């Protein structure tokens, strides 16, 4: 049985380096089914973003969600991928009907940027931003970690119509290990192929790449597609627009209909619903839909 829809953490015990492996199958297919992916290039970029956000969310201890937003003014407008601490994922893509170019920077056009947001239940949101000045997401994230976190980090990301997968290596903070060991691990990992990443299980891949090193492999964490939209959250977002805006819409139609961009769920609010939202405001859990 192939390992699918799971994350594996591992540690090079003698080298001060940690790693992660992820491969998504059903969760990736379900997450993208409500998105308009105009070509295989956009599909691959979205799959890489989803695999990456799972890997990154596993590097921190928090209860909440990590959101990766990749934005640009080119033919590819936006990619959004989210993973919670429980391994629930969702994503969306926005683009023109035709997207040319075969790398992320070309698709986004000038001024592309990546925004990483950590929303924790117990702390204020943390946000980091880096410009997209490289051809692929893995290189952009390497730059992000170098600039924002001062941590040597490498990722290898692959995605097809069937799978999204990734490998992550990072020096442990404050560990003064020999840089030659780190460079050796990167050189070995650079030999990985897309076929190997999408077909080999974690143990097989680690043996293939690092059989000479002592690795501690932790239990798998499952990953699944699950949207956290809800009627109260959508209602809170509508209420934030204000009475005049909502009443203006209701003068033209009987109801306000909102579709979740991530999962396609439909929410309908009539005049009574809207009045209730405005006169009895509910503190909604988050306002992600206002950002996306």
Automatic annotation (TrEMBL):
<dbReference type="Pfam" id="PF01430">
    <property type="entry name" value="HSP33"/>
</dbReference>
<dbReference type="InterPro" id="IPR023212">
    <property type="entry name" value="Hsp33_helix_hairpin_bin_dom_sf"/>
</dbReference>
<keyword id="KW-0862">Zinc</keyword>
<dbReference type="InterPro" id="IPR016154">
    <property type="entry name" value="Heat_shock_Hsp33_C"/>
</dbReference>
<keyword id="KW-0143">Chaperone</keyword>
<protein>
    <submittedName>
        <fullName>Hsp33 family molecular chaperone HslO</fullName>
    </submittedName>
</protein>
<keyword id="KW-0676">Redox-active center</keyword>
<keyword id="KW-0963">Cytoplasm</keyword>
<dbReference type="InterPro" id="IPR016153">
    <property type="entry name" value="Heat_shock_Hsp33_N"/>
</dbReference>
<keyword id="KW-1015">Disulfide bond</keyword>
<dbReference type="InterPro" id="IPR000397">
    <property type="entry name" value="Heat_shock_Hsp33"/>
</dbReference>
């Amino acid at each position: 049985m192939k390992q699918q829809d799971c994350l594996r953490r591992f540690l090079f015990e003698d080298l001060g380096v940690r790693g992660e492996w992820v491969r998504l199958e059903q969760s990736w297919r379900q997450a993208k089914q409500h998105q308009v992916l105009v070509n295989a290039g956009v599909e691959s970029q979205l799959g890489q973003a989803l695999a990456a956000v799972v890997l990154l969310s596993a590097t921190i201890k928090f209860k909440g969600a990590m959101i990766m937003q990749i934005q640009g003014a080119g033919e590819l407008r936006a990619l959004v991928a989210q993973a919670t601490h429980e391994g629930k994922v969702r994503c969306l893509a926005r683009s023109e009907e035709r997207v040319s170019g075969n790398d992320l920077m070309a698709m986004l056009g000038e001024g592309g940027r990546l925004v990483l947001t950590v929303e924790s239940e117990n702390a204020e949101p943390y946000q980091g931003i880096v410009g997209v000045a490289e051809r692929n997401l893995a290189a952009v994230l390497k730059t992000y970690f170098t600039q924002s976190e001062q941590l040597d980090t490498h990722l290898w990301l692959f995605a097809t119509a069937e799978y999204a997968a990734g490998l992550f290596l990072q020096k442990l903070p404050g560990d003064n290990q020999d840089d030659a060991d780190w460079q050796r691990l990167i050189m070995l990992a650079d030999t990985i192929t897309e076929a190997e990443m999408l077909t080999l299980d974690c143990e097989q891949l680690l043996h293939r790449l690092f059989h000479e090193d002592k690795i501690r492999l932790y239990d798998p964490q499952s990953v699944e597609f699950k949207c956290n939209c809800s009627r109260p959250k959508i209602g809170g977002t509508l209420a934030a627009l204000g009475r005049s805006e909502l009443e203006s819409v209701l003068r033209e139609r009987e109801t306000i209909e909102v579709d979740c961009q991530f999962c396609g769920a439909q929410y309908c609010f009539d005049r009574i619903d809207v009045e209730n939202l405005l006169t009895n405001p509910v503190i909604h859990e988050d306002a992600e839909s206002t950002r996306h």
